[in-house]
Amino acid sequence: MSEAPDLPLWAALLVSFFIVVGALVTLIGSIGLWRLPDFYARLHAPSLGATLGTGSILIGSMICFSVLQSRPLVHEVLIALFVTITTPVTLMLLARASVYRDRIEGNPGPPEQDPEPTEL
Length: 120
Prior knowledge:
Elements: H1 9-35, H2 39-42, H3 44-68, H4 74-105
Organism: Starkeya nomas
Pfam family, one: PhaG_MnhG_YufB
Keywords: Membrane, Transmembrane, Transmembrane helix
């Protein structure tokens, strides 16, 4: 096993702040998934929690490894890029599939029709 790296106090406090904030945002998103009443409302909380929570944890990781200068930040940047791209796309696909299914089955709750585009 290796010893824990020695971070300066300011860096350790900053890293711990971002890690705790990321964990809390992810926890709030998970609680929203559990507490919100229907599928359409449940889509928002975990997607925002995952994106913002992961982003905050990645910022903490970037600060830690920047101060230690042990490796480049390519990993964190790629993770942030993939999470930022894939989470909204997944949310849109789940919502469209659910709206389509609810319309076909005649379930109450989904919008009757797509909104008309507005001109600027």
